[in-house]
Amino acid sequence: MVTNQRRLPENDDDDDDLLQHLDVAFKREKWQAWQKESRSRKRAENERAFHDTMNARVSVPKYLHPVSDKQHKQCMKLLQLALGAEGLDECVCLVCDRLVLRRDSVRNEATDWQYIDLLRRNLGKAAVDLPERLVNQYSAPPILQGLEKVLVSPRGVHYYSDDKDCPDAWICVCSDCDKSIRSQQLPKFAVANGFFIGALPKSLRGLTLPERFMTQLASIGAVTRVMRGGRHRCIRSHCVAFDCTPGPPVSLLPRSLSDVEAYRVVMVGDFTEAQTKKIKKMHRIRNQLVRNVFNFYKAYNHLYDDVLPNDEVLDSYYSDEMIAQHFVDFADDDDDAFYDDAICAEQESVRGNSDSWNGGEADEQNVLERR
């Protein structure tokens, strides 16, 4: 017996699910195709940008134009201030008597009465128990009216003539002291706060290097000297190292010159006869001058109270012949022409103000020592 069975229709929800599944798959495939095309398009754009950049390095684009002469001068001036001597120039602070960079200081005119009044009120008057010679050393010049009884450094005053050829001056104050002064406070390292160093009398100046070794508490590790004139040029940059760790004064002073075995003068290059004699004289030991300096230190520096003189050391003397034999070496400069041209090129590389103007000193015996 054959039985006819009627097929029931499927549910409408199944049809909707199938259509939705096909739609999602189509959108996913379409999205992947769009991403692939987008990556290809981005890669092509990057390649075109790279080629455009490489071409721009070869040929100057049209939108770049040469700078004017005025802009060029301004750029060179800024470069000179940053890298040249103007950026490395030094000055002495009026308040603390320290050597600071000019760019780290403040310039004030001597006619700025408000600032002069700030200095007078914050620094105060000099103590009455100070030696008269020390007070005179740190007395303000007459051009700074209002600071007659205030301890300041005269080295911080710079004189000039105005447009009418009238004498005038300006003062240099370091940034630290200027900040304290404007805050109406006494600067920590101000001369008026007791931080001062007395200068040697004129009769005791001009000590030679061995004489300093015999009379100082700290041992100098290195000294750079610059000789003017002849075939020698000035040194623009150099390094000076010091061994400033003093031990017991009795173990350091007086110091016998024979103990300084490593002390030697090396003369490199061509020197004239006058220059050679000058260097020999720079390393003599003058007995009476050493005694006078030592007595001056004993009288005015309490650090020398426990230091006893040694007559054997103070009586030591080296003649010019002995100096040349024990302390002076002569070395040939085979590359003299090379270094001469290199120094000239270096001097002209940065056209800032420096001490190169003094390189052609007429006196070939003039020696400059920077410490």
Automatic annotation (TrEMBL):
<dbReference type="InterPro" id="IPR046700">
    <property type="entry name" value="DUF6570"/>
</dbReference>
<protein>
    <recommendedName>
        <fullName>DUF6570 domain-containing protein</fullName>
    </recommendedName>
</protein>
<feature type="region of interest" description="Disordered">
    <location>
        <begin position="350"/>
        <end position="371"/>
    </location>
</feature>
<dbReference type="Pfam" id="PF20209">
    <property type="entry name" value="DUF6570"/>
</dbReference>
<feature type="compositionally biased region" description="Acidic residues">
    <location>
        <begin position="361"/>
        <end position="371"/>
    </location>
</feature>
<feature type="domain" description="DUF6570">
    <location>
        <begin position="184"/>
        <end position="314"/>
    </location>
</feature>
